């Protein structure tokens, strides 16, 4: 009788013992990837590899990135003991400038770290620098023309062509002093604004097409407040 009781007890306890001993362990080969220096508009692809160094299945609940500019694709949500998993990432550098760090979060059943962080970092440089990046005409006077200048500098490694200059507001006129930029050279965009009577604000863009695959279009915002004439003046 006692023998049968001990046998039943052992059968009941075995799953609990096995569960307590086995656990997954997420180990990343290199959690920090540096892409160095790239031009704005380029995309960076990198695959992070990790291993389940534990003795129970590793379950990846979800993958999340710190911003929509970075996509992450998981090879599998279940990684067996001793098996390798991958996270394929793509970082879109459009609209970024300077040093950047993006984080990918892996949520798993690893009892020692439920959230594992992966990093993509580097420096994003504009192939064509705009200085200033936007133009504030400030105190404009109806019927009077005000001028501003924006310098374009080729920071890339090949000659670039400028073409198809346009403005999006009838109060704006613009011209560029060169139609091609050698490496390291600059050109100026001369912008003239002439607000109309009764106009309170001026807003528009100067748009220039380029031969750059990374920056095919330059958009220079132009805005300003228009002085309102006082009654009797």
Shape: elongated
Q: Which CATH class of the largest domain?
A: Mainly Beta
How would you name the CATH homologous superfamily of the largest domain? Answer: Immunoglobulins
**What's the N-to-C terminus distance?**
113 Å
Protein name: DUF1573 domain-containing protein
InterPro entries: DUF1573 (IPR011467), Ig-like_fold (IPR013783)
Describe the structure in your own words.
It is a single chain. By secondary structure, the protein is mainly β. It folds into two domains: 103 residues, Immunoglobulins (Immunoglobulin-like, Sandwich), CATH 2.60.40.10; 98 residues, Immunoglobulin-like (Sandwich), CATH 2.60.40.10. 9% of the residues lie in helices and 53% in strands. The chain has one helix and 18 strands. The strands form four sheets. Strands 2-9-8-4-6 form a five-stranded mixed sheet, with no helix packed on it. It has a five-stranded mixed sheet with strand order 11-18-17-13-15, with no helix packed on it. It is elongated and about 80 Å long. The N terminus is likely disordered.
Topology:
Elements: H1 2-21, E1 26-28, E2 32-39, E3 43-52, E4 58-65, E5 70-74, E6 78-79, E7 84-92, E8 98-108, E9 115-125, E10 128-131, E11 135-136, E12 146-154, E13 160-167, E14 172-176, E15 180-181, E16 186-193, E17 201-210, E18 217-225
Parallel strand pairs: 2-9, 11-18
Antiparallel strand pairs: 1-3, 3-7, 4-6, 4-8, 5-7, 8-9, 10-12, 12-16, 13-15, 13-17, 14-16, 17-18
């Amino acid at each position: 009788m006692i023998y049968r009781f001990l046998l039943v007890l052992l059968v009941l306890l075995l799953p609990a013992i096995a569960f307590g001993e086995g656990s997954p362990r997420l180990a990343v080969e290199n959690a920090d990837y540096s892409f160095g220096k790239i031009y704005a508009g380029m995309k960076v692809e990198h695959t992070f590899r990790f291993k389940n160094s534990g003795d129970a299945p590793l379950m990846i609940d979800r993958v999340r990135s710190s911003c929509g500019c970075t996509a992450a694709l998981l090879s599998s949500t279940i990684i067996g003991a001793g098996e390798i998993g991958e996270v394929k990432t793509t970082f879109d550098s459009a609209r970024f400038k300077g040093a950047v760090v993006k984080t990918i979060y892996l949520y798993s059943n690893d009892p020692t770290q439920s959230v594992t962080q992966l990093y993509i970092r580097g420096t994003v440089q504009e192939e064509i620098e705009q200085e200033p990046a936007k133009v504030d005409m400030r105190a404009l006077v109806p019927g009077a023309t005000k001028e501003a200048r924006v310098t374009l500098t080729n920071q890339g490694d090949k000659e670039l062509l400028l073409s198809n200059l346009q403005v999006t507001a009838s109060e704006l006129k613009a011209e560029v002093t060169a139609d091609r930029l050698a490496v390291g050279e600059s050109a100026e965009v001369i912008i003239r604004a002439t607000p109309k009577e009764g106009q309170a604000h001026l807003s528009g863009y100067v748009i220039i097409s380029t031969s750059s695959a990374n920056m095919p279009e330059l958009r220079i915002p132009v805005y300003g407040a228009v002085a309102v004439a006082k009654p009797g003046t």
